[in-house]
User: What shape does this take?
Amino acid sequence: MFRAIFISLLIAGLAVSGQAFAQSAPKGAATLDAKPAPKAKERCQDGETPEVAAYTIGKGPNVEKAINESLTGTPGDPEKGLQWMAHRRLGNCLACHMISAVLERAEKTPNIEVTNLAGQKSSQPLGNHGEIGPSLDGVASRYTEGELRMLVVDPKAIFPDTIMPAFHKNNGFTRVHPDCQGLAILSAQQVEDVVAFLNTLK
Assistant: This one.
């Protein structure tokens, strides 16, 4: 009799323990399976895209290679082109190239307001120009639109030894920050905007 009572109590205890385990297991399992939150990006937070437009490389009258057709079919906006060129984390063209017309503009308006492709707004300086690269004064008189497009998309295709980066390319780079791997600096339309601005420099 005592043996029967003991067995009954043991079975009841196991049942209670099983229910408690069943109730707590999902919570415990979730804790064991939980993954740490992804680390916030430190770089390439300006809407850089992994998408690169298809294009055909032809010949230009001044250099061997040119992209004579628009990357998007939509005309570029020169004012936006200057914004991308002035932005320190995007084109940053003024760090290496002097543009007299932009310096003159900077005397009256030192900064340009930029809204990147991620929707973030910033004020970028217009008056700090470098001289590592050639002046862009009159660049539209030296190169055709197609040649300028090639120079922005992938300048090494024309000048293999240049230190100027390819702005519309998402592979083939070395020592890329993990946040920026597989991303192009400028989108196809941003390239068209930059080309439209460069075309004003005659």
